[in-house]
């Protein structure tokens, strides 16, 4: 049986939503009924349209912050953490830099798509 996969079309990407946290960064354990909305995830697939568009420096495996309101859940896996997200709802892409914060200008991915922030793969 062939493997199933999702290929987004138009100006969309496929994101695997990060796990919800049961504890704050400071170490406070949250009660099970408390819910912190998770709006970050890893890009799993990119539509051909987004891949060609130099205005959106999003690549496969990038960690992104996105607005979840128009995200469409994909019922392909048991844990149901896949979402098709319009590229316009991506608010930020997380990048790593070799410079400490505050010592220089922020590195922005080149529009040509040839590079990006140092330390990304």
Identify the notable features of this structure and list them briefly.
globular; disordered C terminus; 121 residues; 10 Kd Chaperonin, Protein Cpn10, Chain O; six-stranded antiparallel β-sheet; 1 helix; mainly beta
What would your notes on this structure say?
- It holds the Pfam family Cpn10.
- Residues 102-121 are annotated as: Disordered.
- The chain has 1 helix and 6 strands.
- The protein has 121 residues and is mainly beta.
- It has a single domain (1-121), classed as GroES chaperonin (10 Kd Chaperonin, Protein Cpn10, Chain O, Roll), CATH 2.30.33.40.
- It has a 6-stranded antiparallel β-sheet.
- Strand 4 (72-74) and strand 5 (82-86) form a beta hairpin.
- The longest helix has 5 residues, at 48-52.
List the helices and strands and how they pair.
Elements: E1 12-17, E2 40-46, H1 48-52, E3 63-66, E4 72-74, E5 82-86, E6 90-94
Largest sheet: 6 strands, antiparallel
Helices and strands, in order, run as EEHEEEE
Number of helices: 1
Gap between N and C termini = 32 Å
How many DSSP-defined strands?
Answer: 6
Assign an overall shape.
Answer: globular
CATH class: Mainly Beta
The overall pLDDT, averaged over residues, is 77
Please report which band the strand proportion falls in: under 5%, 5-15%, 15-25%, 25-35%, 35-45% or over 45%. Answer: 15-25%
The secondary structure category is mainly beta
Low-confidence stretches: 108-121
The strand order across the widest sheet is 4-5-1-2-3-6
Counted up, domains total 1
Q: Over all CA atoms, what is the radius of gyration? A: 16 Å
Q: Which architecture would the CATH scheme give at its second level?
A: Roll
Which range best describes the helical content: under 10%, 10-25%, 25-40%, 40-55%, 55-70% or over 70%?
under 10%
């Amino acid at each position: 049986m062939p493997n199933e996969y999702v290929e987004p079309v138009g100006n969309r990407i496929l994101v695997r939503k990060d796990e919800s946290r049961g504890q704050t960064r400071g170490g406070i354990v949250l009660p099970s009924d408390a819910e912190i909305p998770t709006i970050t995830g890893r890009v799993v697939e990119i539509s051909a349209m987004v891949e060609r568009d130099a205005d959106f420096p999003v690549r496969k495996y990038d960690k992104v912050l996105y607005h979840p309101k128009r995200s469409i859940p994909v019922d392909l896996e048991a844990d149901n953490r896949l979402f098709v997200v319009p590229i316009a709802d991506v608010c930020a892409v997380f990048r790593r830099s070799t410079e400490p914060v505050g010592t220089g200008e922020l590195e922005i991915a080149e529009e040509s798509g040839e590079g990006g922030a140092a330390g990304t793969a």
